[in-house]
Amino acid sequence: MDAFETVTLRDPSSPLTATYVPTAGMVATSLSDDGVELLGQRRGLQAYASNGKTMGIPILYPWANRLSSMGYGVDGAVVTLTPGTGGVRTDQHGVPIHGTLAAYKDWTVTTLLESQLTAELDFAARPALLATFPFPHLLTLDITLADRTLTVTTTVTATTGSRVPLCFGFHPYLQLPGVPRAQWRIETPAMRYQPVNAWGIPTGRVEQRDAASELLGDKFIDEGFDEVAPGSVFALSGGDRRIEVHFDEGFTAAQVFAPGDDDVVCFEPMAAPTDALRRGGYHVVQPGESAVARFRVAVG
């Protein structure tokens, strides 16, 4: 088994710790509250590194969720994706899923303090990355842990004359150890539901959803949304614990996922809806400019 060097951040004001692995795609493998693990481990770090099986909090970049086919066009650039090449992975239906940076090794750590980790990835210097996303830019992740809150700030800076589409996201697997799944409560804000077809691709229909609070029970959930307002809060609670995911800025879409085969709930911050890289509806970073997206995981 490969050994990965980990970085553990410590909250100065509480026993909360967060562990990241820069050489495995800057994935968060742990958010631990005095020894209680709050991130779903799924199949573990090794499975993520070897075949992209997600766990913890991975980044989904440069697109989150699925694309409806093996190619896309942006600003006259037509990109053809090849499964198994350049980090492209496919789901059970053979469509590309979750971008190309799963367990990507070559992040550069620029800041490492007790409660802060910053790392960057320069697409312009990586021909293999540009082959699947030909828009040179600098991608920076800034992670801080303070006041019982993990804050993840993503900055995308367009470094040449190309505009950069923003379709990325994150996939936090949250869990409540010691509380039966059926007793977990999930809270979601008002947003717009996007029904999908059998391949998980939006159908084009939309439906407004009010803010909701419900017990998870035996429900299986895998639903996509857009029109998520800045500052929206999603929450998972049970027993005497509450975990909130705050979509502070830059994340206008979300996936809510509660699988039937694992006791985890995901509130996935997304910069654009599923398949936006093909069908449009995303924001772009103009040449020479930067865009910032931020979410927080607050532990009650």
TrEMBL record:
Q: Has UniProt tagged this entry with the keyword Isomerase? A: yes
Cite the GO molecular-function annotations of the record: aldose 1-epimerase activity; carbohydrate binding
Q: Which Pfam families match?
A: Aldose_epim
**Entry's EC annotation:** 5.1.3.3
- What's any GO biological process attached to this entry? carbohydrate metabolic process
Print the keywords alphabetically: Isomerase
What is this enzyme's class at the first EC digit? isomerase
Keyword Isomerase set for record? yes
The record ties this protein, via SUPFAM superfamilies, to:
Galactose mutarotase-like
What is this protein identified as?
Aldose 1-epimerase
Q: Which organism is it from?
A: Mycolicibacterium chlorophenolicum
Give the gene that encodes this protein: galM
